[in-house]
Amino acid sequence: MEPNCFFPPHDGVSLRALADHLGAELADEATADRIVRSVSPVYRAVDGDVCYILSRKNKDELETCHASAIICDPTLKSLIPPHIPVILSSSPHAAFAIAGALLHPDAMRPAQLTSEAQAISPSAFVDPTARLEPNVVVEPMAVIGANAEIGEGTRICAGAVIGADVKIGRDCTISAGASVLCALVGNGVIIHNGARIGQDGFGYAPGPRGMLKIVQIGRVIIQDNVEIGANTTIDRGTMDDTVIGEGTKIDNQVQIGHNVRIGRHSAIVSQVGIAGSAKIGNGVQIGGQAGVTGHITIGDGVQLAAGSGIITDIPPGGRYGGVPARPIKDFLRELAEIMAKSGNRKKKDGVRQDD
């Protein structure tokens, strides 16, 4: 792979320093002075790279690996070729994430697009009544509305729109082309390119001459350390608030309707649709293209398979899949039966064709 000009390698971190930073164990102290500068997948890792494995499925990839270190669980140490140093961690995936953040801090949030020396670009518009704390960066063509408040260390990227009276906390990044209206945003929030926060919810009532628009006067509340993907939309509440809980991560192209409440540290994958007034608990994981109907409750810790259709309440802690969603074991068993019947029909059709 050609050198990456977007995310160049780190100046270098010793394996001893890396292991200490991860709270992990360096298997061989003789390798403590080896240097790592970047991250890489196992199969093409070279000197200076650190990578990780999670299972024995990675064994074949190790044949072409020349990394300066591999992070793995102690039970997988015997798989690693003797020429590759090993960092032992009971949570190698999380350890690798921490290593990546250390080696490539600039990749952890959208980068500044311009090299202007001024914190507030002359081509941005900041309403005179807006209040910005020190060290706020406002890039070209961004708009900050009346009475908006923005905390220290936050960056408003090129072409972003911050509506009137919006409040954004400290150390946030509002990326290029995003719009944030009718919202209160906590600290450490990342909103990626083109996201739309706080526009009207979809509310109409049938009338004698067609659909009548229902007023939407709620807000969007985004708590600390939330990340919202590109082109995701989060509607403001009708009369209550739409709430995204602390630490929740939302992928690209997700639709979240009005009055939805999502708990803390949940993960919602691309193209999920959540209808109005649904309540989603803490630590919930929702796979891509799942659909959640309105006015239902999904309990804490639930895992929903990609493509699921959720139409009723789900109690805490379960794993569900299918349309309509049911316990994952039931769904997989039914799927296996369908595939077996389909295979039998194909065999019978094949016999008739041979005859």
Automatic annotation (TrEMBL):
Catalytic residues (UniProt): H258
Q: Where is the UDP-3-O-[3-hydroxymyristoyl] glucosamine N-acyltransferase non-repeat region domain?
A: 33-100
Q: Which CDD domains match?
A: LbH_LpxD
What Enzyme Commission number does this protein have?
2.3.1.191
Q: In which pathway does it act?
A: Bacterial outer membrane biogenesis; LPS lipid A biosynthesis
Q: Which Pfam families match?
A: Hexapep, LpxD
Show the GO cellular component annotation of the record: membrane
Entry's Gene Ontology molecular function annotations: N-acyltransferase activity; UDP-3-O-[(3R)-3-hydroxyacyl]-glucosamine N-acyltransferase activity
Which keywords does this chain's UniProt record carry? Acyltransferase, Lipid A biosynthesis, Lipid biosynthesis, Lipid metabolism, Repeat, Transferase
Cite the InterPro entries for this sequence: Hexapep, Hexapep_transf_CS, LpxD, Trimer_LpxA-like_sf, UDP_GlcNAc_AcTrfase_non-rep
Task: Write out the catalysed reaction.
Answer: a UDP-3-O-[(3R)-3-hydroxyacyl]-alpha-D-glucosamine + a (3R)-hydroxyacyl-[ACP] = a UDP-2-N,3-O-bis[(3R)-3-hydroxyacyl]-alpha-D-glucosamine + holo-[ACP] + H(+)
A biological process from GO: lipid A biosynthetic process
- Fetch the PROSITE patterns from UniProt: HEXAPEP_TRANSFERASES
- Its function? Catalyzes the N-acylation of UDP-3-O-acylglucosamine using 3-hydroxyacyl-ACP as the acyl donor. Is involved in the biosynthesis of lipid A, a phosphorylated glycolipid that anchors the lipopolysaccharide to the outer membrane of the cell.
Q: Which NCBIfam families match?
A: lipid_A_lpxD, PRK00892.1
Record-stated family: Belongs to the transferase hexapeptide repeat family. LpxD subfamily.
**What assembly does the database describe for this protein?**
Homotrimer.
Name the record gives this protein: UDP-3-O-acylglucosamine N-acyltransferase
